[in-house]
């Protein structure tokens, strides 16, 4: 049987949603005997910060491209490499890189990982780049994969009309080995507390400040409540100042960056993700698979899209509603099995083995596209 040859083209294996998406998807695709998978990374191998994709049994090629790199020889090399594949799936927008893929003769699929501009500074250059991106994708792509209906609609409203425009949600390889005790060993004072938490990059549009402000009322009324903030980022200092201003130091714990976030999610009684315009929401699915109640904001984009399908009552409009919901949840008895089971069942739809099947069907459609 002739295999369908697919090459994923990425900038780097950075920590974050795109890397997790690719890490999970490639593992599932390697189990499909009808696929041959390769990754083309546009970074020097020795500069790759996150090594876990490198540890997978997948062929990885490295052709480093610097910002605004116009080295024609590099792009010709990439085009030659990609010409040996049926499908090139691009995960980052770089105009010259897309031209190189289009000239290879392979079918080009662009994966949408971004949407929305609220609370994200948009310079004139970024706005112009978005317009040019739409124009180029329309001309040079055989297909577009969006990770949510929200992302699809966002780019269609900007004029994206490329063919084979599909929604395939991100897949998750669920961690079935949860080491909650490791967290309690490190932070024994958390045991027996009512824990509200999040796992996130601490950047502006993740709006962790909303969570801190929303938690403040709960902390006043429930001395056993604790806020567990797992992550790091450019907003860390501002968030710590806010905690100090609200006199929440005794109730809030910053753990910094953690590799095993599932262990921390597993001890949370409520998981809150207040991001705005989130394209998907991988962490929300991971928490639901643990049976945890998840709370998001009305303008959360893909996060809101997901939660509306399983627990719409946990979508809040503002900090006041967030405070009231947290207070309400803290008064309820331990989450019953019916609710937990519903969340787990919903999350299973996003098992990467199921998502891989959707991608395989999509690839076959693209390969046959005239």
Automatic annotation (TrEMBL):
InterPro entries named among the record's database cross-references: Glyco_trans_1, Glyco_trans_4-like_N, Glycosyltransferase_grp1
Pfam families on file: Glyco_transf_4, Glycos_transf_1
Record keywords, A-Z: Glycosyltransferase, Transferase
EC number: 2.4.-.-
Lineage: superkingdom: Bacteria
EC category name: transferase
GO MF annotations, alphabetized: glycosyltransferase activity
Residues annotated as domain Glycosyltransferase subfamily 4-like N-terminal: 15-172
Annotated ranges, domain Glycosyl transferase family: 192-333
Protein name (record): Glycosyltransferase family 4 protein
Protein species of origin: Sphingobacterium suaedae
């Amino acid at each position: 049987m002739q295999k369908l040859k697919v090459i994923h083209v990425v900038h780097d294996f950075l920590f974050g949603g795109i890397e997790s998406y690719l890490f999970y998807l490639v593992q599932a695709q390697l189990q499909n005997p009808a696929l041959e998978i390769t990754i083309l990374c546009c970074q020097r191998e020795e500069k790759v910060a996150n090594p876990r994709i490198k540890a997978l049994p997948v062929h990885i090629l490295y052709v480093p491209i610097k910002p605004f790199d116009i080295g024609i020889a590099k792009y010709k090399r990439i085009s030659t490499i990609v010409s040996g594949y049926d499908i090139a799936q691009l995960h980052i927008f770089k105009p010259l890189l897309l031209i190189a893929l289009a000239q290879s003769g392979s079918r080009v699929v662009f994966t949408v990982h971004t949407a929305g501009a609220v609370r994200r500074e948009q310079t004139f250059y970024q706005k112009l780049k978005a317009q040019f991106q739409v124009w180029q994708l329309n001309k040079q792509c055989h297909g577009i994969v969006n990770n949510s209906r929200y992302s699809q609609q966002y780019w269609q409203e900007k004029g994206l009309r490329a063919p084979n425009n599909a929604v395939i949600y991100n897949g998750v390889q669920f961690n079935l080995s949860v080491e909650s005790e490791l967290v309690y060993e490190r932070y024994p004072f958390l045991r027996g507390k009512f824990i509200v938490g999040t796992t996130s990059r601490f950047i502006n549009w993740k709006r962790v400040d909303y969570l801190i402000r929303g938690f403040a009322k709960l902390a006043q009324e429930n001395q056993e409540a604790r806020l567990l903030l797992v992550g790091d980022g450019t907003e860390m200092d501002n968030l710590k100042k806010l905690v100090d201003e609200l006199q929440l130091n005794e109730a809030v714990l910053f753990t910094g960056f953690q590799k095993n976030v599932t262990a921390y999610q597993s001890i949370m009684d409520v998981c809150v993700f207040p991001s705005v315009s989130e394209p998907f929401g991988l962490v929300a699915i991971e928490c639901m698979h643990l049976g945890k109640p998840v709370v998001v904001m009305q303008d959360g984009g893909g996060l809101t899209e997901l939660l509306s399908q399983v627990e719409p009552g946990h979508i809040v409009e503002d900090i006041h509603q967030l405070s009231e919901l947290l207070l309400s949840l803290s008064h309820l008895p331990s989450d019953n099995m019916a609710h937990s089971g519903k969340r787990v069942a919903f999350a299973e739809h996003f098992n990467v083995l199921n998502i891989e099947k959707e991608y395989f069907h999509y690839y076959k459609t693209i390969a046959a596209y005239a």
